[in-house]
Design goal:
about 25% helix, alpha/beta, eight-stranded mixed β-sheet, globular
Length: about 250
Amino acid sequence: MKINKKSVYHTKNLDHEYYSRQVSTPYESTKKFFSFLNKKIKLKNKNIIDLGCGSGANLIHLKETYQPGICFGFDQNKDLIDLAKQYSKQRKLKNLHFAVKDIQKASQKKLLKPNIDGVISMQTLSVLDNYEKTIIFAKKLKPKFICVNSLFWEGNIDFKISVNFLEKKKRNIKKINHYNIYSIKHYIQFLKKQGYKKNIFMKFKTEKNLKTKDKSLMGSYSIKLNGGSEIKSGPLILDWYFILSYKN
């Protein structure tokens, strides 16, 4: 997938401080994602691939906490992959590899030699134009399970949400991000068609009171809603879900 020059994921628009924070202090959602997954499938000695790995923060946390086997991170942004290699080298982590790859392309030539136990993708599907290409990419790696963290809705509705960051004085777009929300029912139906018949999902609930400096911008913060706590960013309520799909 070609990255729009105005995308927040384009090299010139990357928020390096954000990626650095992820590595130094793993996010609560990252910790709970792996806790959720490890309760269902023990991660020790498992070979794992992270699709849309960014600067490698999630795999670094996985390596340091759960002692998996060989881990690979794929992302199409070379700058982020270079950061991931730098961070993993600084922490002297073994059997952790990163490569530049477009996870929406079907080609798997010269990909990997070891057997892959599982594929993960964290907060990535929602910024892509369609999750199906990425799941097909994952399937061709022949993993026993696929586990994702993304924005989902428990109805028969998909939402395509483009967030345009505007200039202060003109209605010109400076940067673009996406918060696409997908129907859980249809996502699971698609995974079943790919051979992943068992599917378990859980909504992420934060135990922290998230705060942001400026609520008029996009940044996660907690709100009270219907007697509970929800996560909001700008005008959007973010329903993050963990979905584990595995074969019989």
